[in-house]
Amino acid sequence: MTDSDKITEQQEIKKKTCFVIMPIADHPDYEKGHFKRVYEYLIKPACETAGYQPIRADDSKASHMIMFDILKKIVECDMAICDLTTKNANVFYELGLRQAFNKKTILITDGKEKAPFDIAGFRYVEYSSTLRIDQVKVDIPKITEMLKTTESDSENSINSIVKLLEMQPVKIEPKDLNSEESMLFKMVMSVNEKIDALSNNKGTNFIKPINLYSSNELQPNISFEEIYNSDPDDLYKYIFYIYNDKLGNLKKIDDNIIIFSNNGNETHMINNIQFRKKIKAKPAIDFLNLK
Prior knowledge:
This protein is of the alpha/beta class. The protein has 2 domains: 11-164, 3-Layer(aba) Sandwich (Rossmann fold); 210-286, no CATH class. The chain has helices spanning 3-13, 34-49, 67-76, 89-100, 133-152, 161-164, 179-199, 224-230, 273-278; strands at 16-21, 52-55, 79-83, 105-109, 124-126, 213-214, 217-218, 222-223, 238-242, 245-254, 257-262, 265-270, 280-283. The chain has a 6-stranded antiparallel sheet. A 5-stranded parallel sheet has the order 2-1-3-4-5, sandwiched between helices. Helix 2 crosses helix 5.
């Protein structure tokens, strides 16, 4: 490895991160794929120009992230951008978590709706929802400048509920793992590494026909994604699994979160195509044996 390669590698390791809090699923008031374009053509370039690596929950590179990983990144990223457009409930939840720890965050909105009164007093950047190229060229520098200004602001600057109310930010106390917890953690990490290795395997591609049933048993060989694209109403007729762990029945699809219920225990999964493909299904009723 040359010296220049080492310098580049060190720069990449030290690159600042910015977690993007925004609507992910399509919204009825906007064209299909609108918020994906907001991210790709507006937020992502602004982050990169300001020297940040943008991170979004449904990025293909983050497809293995579970809910706890995402919550951890919301808290630990150097910066966050929060798009208030559509007043999305999950967005406000993640913003509240970020602000509870008094972490630096900038707010943006397309201005179609007034910001809620309890955060209307904070600084925010307004962008054009048209995403026209002439507008994007104006909006990217505005967001970039806000990122840089917020980064250089002192810790005492007021742009969060914590500072406004002069409250103490939340702190997470460090905890040492005992030997059993350490062993369990290593086992989980080992499984994750194997899953990533299989996911990144670029061997021979082949088409495998869907076989919902194997022998006389109902096997979970069809994915959530296939049912989701075929007839979403049928999702409630299945029991779901991921990596042989039972998730249970579908309880609710809430914007970018899928909620499963298994004997009263809820499991929340990210609603993106990567997870939908990994979640497998089998019918809740063995209708093959019905007379």
